[in-house]
Amino acid sequence: MINQRHLDDLFAFLRFASVSTDATYKSQLDLCADWLITKFSNMGLNAELHPTPGHPIVLARTKTDPAKKTVLIYGHYDVQPVDPLNLWTHPPFEPHLENGIITARGSTDNKGQILSHILGVQETLKLTPELPVNLIFLVEGEEEIGSPNLASFIQTHLTELACDVIVISDTGMVAPQHPTFTYGLRGIAALEIFLQGPDKDLHSGIYGGAVANPITVLTRLIASLHDEQGRIAVPGFYSEVRELQSWERDSWKTLPLNDAELLLLTGSPSLTGEAGYSALERCWARPTAELNGISGGYQGEGTKTVLPSKASAKLTFRLVPDQDPETIIERVCTHLKTSCPTSVHMELKLGHSGKPYLVDPNSPYGLAAQRALSCAFPVNAIALIREGGSIPIVATFKELLGVDTLLLGLALPDCRAHSPNENFPLENFAAGILLNQKLLKELAL
Ligand SMILES: [Zn+2]
Question: pTM (2 decimals)?
Answer without folding.
Answer: 0.90
